Amino acid sequence: MPLIVKDHTWTQNHNTVYICVPLKGVKTANVHVICTDEYLKVSFPPFLFEVFLFGTINEEKSEARIGNGVAVFTLQKRRDELWEQLFTNIDKEKQKQVREQAIVKVQEKEAEKSKAKTTRIQQEKKYALETMMKLENEERDRIQKMKNEECARATVELDFWREKQRKIAEDNENLQKLQGAGNKPVYQKTERANVTPAINTANTTSGQRSIKQKPKDLPAPRSAGCIKISFTPRVFPTALRESRVPEEEEWLKKQAEARRAVDTDLAELDDLREEERNPDWLKEKGDKLFMAGNFQAAVNAYNLGIKLNRKIPALFSNRAACHLKLRNLHKAIEDSSQALELLTPAVAANAAARLKAHVRRGTAFCELQLYVEGLLDYQAALQIDPQNEALRTDTDKIREIIQGTTTPSSS
Question: Against a cut of 0.85, is the pTM above it?
Fold first, then answer.
């Protein structure tokens, strides 16, 4: 059975109620809150605070602050009035109905959040695709414009070169006509045809001059150009949103640190053999003792392993399984919670370990008749392995017990 918290305090004015609940040294991460317009529940195993409010509140405007060992709730009243007391006296059937309505309301809110998240992701993907297509079109138009400009410039240069060649050919033709018309050669020097006299006396004795004509001028080389090419940037506002690479790297880093985090200051190490100083060896020994049915000896092995290294989640999870067999239900809940805290971040590599820890903690809750808390753990395990039919069957049974359609079987 859970330990009911009764040392809470509360104050009020005409429009607000303030409730202060001590957390009994429980970590903030282990506190679960359910609040509706007429019901408030704070679960921090093994403790439980539950109140059926005297009047109705506006849950949307209410808020909770958890920290420094207390949970402070500021509840906004729907009507400005002073309550005679915090609790209202209703029968068990009405209490059961209010609890069920609160669970249904919480599930509906979670479904709405999931739907809104899916819609937002689709909109962001659509925006990313439209942006990428727009950038690609702009880049394609820019490149085409550069090609057209380069083509036009090359055409102009080609026309200029052809005109120049035509004029050179005309000048040479005129020069040849003039040379053939008279006895004396006519020398003509133009800008486009460089014809100069050359004296060759190497093979003559009379010093006769001969004419040597230079070759025709060639067109100037085309001016060099440089075309800059840039790749289209890909825009993803939600880059790596679905990727688990950072979480997996963080998990591997935590595992490596856990292997190195051995407490060498324990006095018991002096009396232990070499293999007994290895947490992994102690875990395997505890597993063998558990399979043999010697649960207390397995607990002792896990205890020593945890003293050596408190960062290995399997030691806590397996010790929780032993406590379930020994009916130490509160200890099973604590060990399962500690294992789940160490099994972060949630990645595929530790999915099987998280499933076992959720099932063990959920089983302990159900044995304590805390079926709502147990259902939450079984649902979390079912999300990890949706194809597990046995797990789905157990979840449905717990839900039927909460709804009152099935009587819980005594263990």
Answer: no
